[in-house]
Specification:
5-stranded antiparallel beta sheet, 4-stranded antiparallel beta sheet
């Protein structure tokens, strides 16, 4: 009975979202606060109903109710409870309910926003309700997570073993909070286009209203992508952290558009300029999110990240994308002549630097989009198959971002409207000198032939020292007494510290990515007990192999020692496994990781085999990944910077002081 209650709650959520869209539309047309209030109530009720449906789905997985088709296909009684619960969003149907939960949840929070003009808020609530209706209808009519199975099997097929991991239990909710969070910026953009406000005071306020939503979504998406990359790094056993997989790109595209939106919204808020461009990016970010949903669920991609779904449902998702994004961009094209206003600015100014930043981010997003979709389009049109992988992105995406990174530190040091390029460069001279020194020293320390690596190290250091230079300038370090420096530092808004931390975190990531990519070492050998393989400065010895039984798997567990070839670093024990899951008949590897400061020693156990030297040996692969810690620390710092900026009192959703001017 409780399963039927969940199905009813999902249908109720669909009806309430439709009611939300209808009441808000009529309320805006009639300027009726009563109808608008009813729409807001329906939005909150839709979120509650979706949460109830999702709670029932989790209950079905937790209790192993195999009379539910979704549970029977993606769960097993022997699974640990964490993975039973995570199985609720480990399938297409369950993850779609999670998508709808985040969408209706954000819609409910939108109703709490104060200070928005009546027309803008009501129109945004209507658009958000329309989006919720589309996706809830897709869930109810084509992807019912509560469909019954009769007769119910005694045992389920279990979840893909690769997804039975703590990181994958947390990764999808974070990723969807970022993906779907951009639906609010989409709704606010469409609402602004519907309202057609063209007077100068509107767009600065609109930029202020949009920016917190964009920032929150970008932070969630940053954390979700980073956690997913870390999962791929230690779970898939290939030694890397990013492969430009099409599904990885599907999450990266809205991240790039969201980053551009954040910077563009600053110009719109401060100067009232770039309103049309900011609206376009707000539409684009969520359109990329919907495109990602199509790629993951349509069956056009084969990936460990993708859901295996039939093409018919993929076409329906493509229809949702076409309807929502197509309507929004058609409205944008109609209203584009009215999206003017804002102060003029010189090319050399903070606005000019942010425009240049947007240009590079957008072109970079286009290169990723082309690299992702071109093989699919070519195969659909001609039947030919090609592979677009890391070499393409190294030749297109990397140079674009390198130039953008070179420009980035100068922006905060330029004045609004008209800046002094020479003065900004002078204030960055120390940062530039330190960056060049770091690049040169790194080039000498690692390998003189790696000139590009030296340049990458210099760029990473440039981002870090450039971010710090802006703080040094604002607190007037070396120019006033230390007591005054401390007072100025305490007086800096959280948004300034957040920007500094985010830009420095980007530099930390660049350092880690350059060093890990250019200087990683790999070695592999068949090892008998007591055998040794070396990778760079580390020697790995196989001490013992035993069979262990897990909650729902059997594992061949290797116990190994990681010790320095030379030096005083202490040896450490690591465990690497090959796991066999009887329920699905699948075998996975569990990597042994030895964290050595900023470096990783990464050990993978292969299959058992006989060699001329030993009757029993195991193929052991070892990767020495220098500075791999920075790859994941950098985005964490970026997300922390975003959270600091989000907590700045100037970014509160209430903009009361502008309400009278815009009502």
């Amino acid at each position: 009975m409780i399963i039927e209650f969940g199905a009813f709650a999902l249908i109720l959520a669909l009806a309430l979202s439709g009611l939300q869209a209808g009441l808000a539309t009529v309320g805006r047309w009639r300027r009726s606060p009563l109808l608008a209030g009813g729409a807001e109530g329906a939005a909150v009720a839709a979120a509650i109903a979706t949460a109830l449906a999702f709670g029932v789905l989790i209950f079905a997985f937790a209790t192993s109710d195999f009379s539910v088709t979704n549970v029977a296909r993606n769960s097993h009684t022997d699974k640990p409870m964490l993975y039973k619960i995570a199985g609720a969003w480990g399938s297409h149907e369950g993850s779609l309910v999670l998508w709808c939960l985040v969408m209706t949840g954000f819609g409910a929070v939108l109703t709490l926003a104060r200070g928005l003009p009546f027309g803008l808020k009501t129109s945004a609530v209507a658009v958000q309700g329309g989006l919720g209706t589309l996706f809830l209808a897709f869930a109810v009519f084509t992807s019912n997570p509560f469909a019954r199975l009769d007769p119910a099997p005694l045992q389920g097929a279990s979840l893909n073993p690769l997804l039975q991991d703590p990181a994958l239990a947390i990764h999808p909710p974070l990723l969807y909070a970022g993906y779907v969070g951009f639906s609010v910026t989409f709704s606010l953009a469409v609402a602004a286009l519907i309202e057609g406000r063209a007077f100068s005071g509107f767009w600065p306020a609109w930029g202020r209203w949009v920016r917190p939503w964009a920032l929150a979504s970008w932070v969630f998406l940053t954390l979700g992508i980073t956690l997913g990359a870390f999962w791929a790094y230690y779970e898939l056993g290939w030694g890397g952290w990013w492969f430009w997989d099409p599904v990885e790109n599907a999450s990266f595209l809205p991240w790039l558009a969201g980053a551009a939106l954040l910077h563009s919204a600053v110009v719109t808020e401060r100067r009232g300029a770039l309103a049309g461009w900011t609206v376009f990016l707000a539409l684009l970010a969520f359109s990329f999110s919907m495109l990602g949903a199509f790629l993951v669920r349509s069956g056009v991609l084969t990936s460990v990240h993708a859901f295996a779904v039939d093409p018919e449902r993929g076409l329906m998702l493509l229809g949702i994308l076409g309807l929502a994004a197509g309507s929004a961009f058609a409205l944008f094209a109609w209203r584009a002549p009215q999206l003017k206003g804002g102060g003029l600015f010189a090319p050399v100014s903070r606005e000019g630097a942010l425009v240049l930043n947007n240009l590079f981010l957008t072109v970079a997003a286009v290169t990723v989009l082309l690299g992702t979709l071109y093989p699919l389009i070519l195969e659909a049109a001609t039947g030919a198959t090609i592979s677009v992988g890391p070499p393409y992105f190294a030749l297109t995406f990397t140079p674009l971002m390198a130039v953008a990174f070179l420009i980035l530190p100068a922006g905060p040091l330029l004045a609004w409207k008209r800046g002094d390029a020479l003065g900004a460069l002078q204030r960055l001279s120390l940062a530039g000198g330190l960056a060049i020194a770091c690049g040169f020293l790194g080039w000498l320390a690692f390998e003189p032939r790696q000139a590009f690596a030296g340049a990458g190290l210099a760029i990473g250091a440039w981002l870090i020292f450039g971010a710090l230079a802006e703080v040094v300038e604002r607190v007037r370090l070396f120019r006033v007494p230390l007591a005054e420096v401390g007072r100025r530092a305490r007086g800096l808004p959280l948004g300034a510290w957040g920007m500094t931390l985010a830009h420095a975190g980007l530099g930390v990531f660049v350092l880690g990515a350059v060093v890990e990519t250019q200087f990683k070492l790999e070695a592999a050998a068949p090892l008998a007990i007591g055998g040794e393989v070396r990778a760079g400065p580390w020697a790995v010895t196989l001490n013992d192999v035993r069979i262990v039984e897990g909650p729902n798997y059997l594992a061949e567990q290797g116990r190994l020692t990681v010790a320095p070839v030379s030096g005083d670093a202490p040896p450490r024990q690591v465990i690497a496994e090959r796991r066999f899951f009887p329920a699905g008949g699948q075998t996975t590897t569990e990597v042994g990781l030895d964290f050595r400061g900023l470096d990783d020693v990464y050990v993978v156990m292969g299959e058992r085999r006989a060699t001329p030297e030993a009757a029993q040996a195991w193929t052991v692969r070892v990767y020495y990944n220098p500075w791999a810690r920075l790859i994941f620390l950098g985005p964490a710092l970026m997300a922390l910077g975003g959270l600091l900026s989000l907590s700045d009192r100037r970014l509160r959703l209430a903009v009361g002081r502008r309400k009278k001017a815009l009502a």
